[in-house]
């Protein structure tokens, strides 16, 4: 399983069989991601946690160019359908569905959600994704909440992608608790540094996670991690 970071909350997961999953594409409006050629990104599925522009900005263009299947909540999938996106699968909280690459469950997040034109974006969420290569959790934008303990009770996670930027979402200290609750020993940080209110001290953030026995990974924009080859914390 390979993880490629495209900045903010956007990243891709590539599975051994070549299936590519892209999450929350916000690339072209992100100055920090100016070195990413969006036309070079191919994907089979695009998963959107909620409707805010900093998570969906490039979704329409990518969906139309690649023919990828959109996975999100019902309201977001319906909004994109009106834009001509025919390959969409709507979900709601607690529900799961089998896809060719594995099972996706849409889980709770505490945040807000509206689409770029002001349309109601449904309730925000995250994903628990189970593949033959392991299970992982994508928090989306959220506060720390106790439903995360249920995820840890029900699943054994290979890793989690957690928001850490504070101000609009949980910060590093709360996210480190979230990592404990979901049972993730490796966490990849998202939703940080893009705007002034969410700039973080990287070393302090890593220290907050290390205190909980969790490794926080902060890859550079454009960097690819082979998650199976990463060593565990001593």
From TrEMBL:
Keyword Signal tagged: no
UniProt-recorded Gene Ontology molecular function terms: hydrolase activity
Keywords, in A-Z order: Hydrolase
InterPro entries associated with the record: Metallo-B-lactamas (IPR001279), RibonucZ/Hydroxyglut_hydro (IPR036866), UPF0173 (IPR022877), UPF0173_UPF0282_UlaG_hydrolase (IPR050114)
UniProt xrefs under SUPFAM superfamilies: Metallo-hydrolase/oxidoreductase
Metallo-beta-lactamase domain: residues covered: 7-191
Domain of life: Bacteria
Tagged with keyword Hydrolase: yes
NCBIfam families documented for this protein: PRK00685.1
Family the UniProt entry places it in: Belongs to the UPF0173 family.
Protein name: UPF0173 metal-dependent hydrolase HNR46_001404
Provenance organism: Haloferula luteola
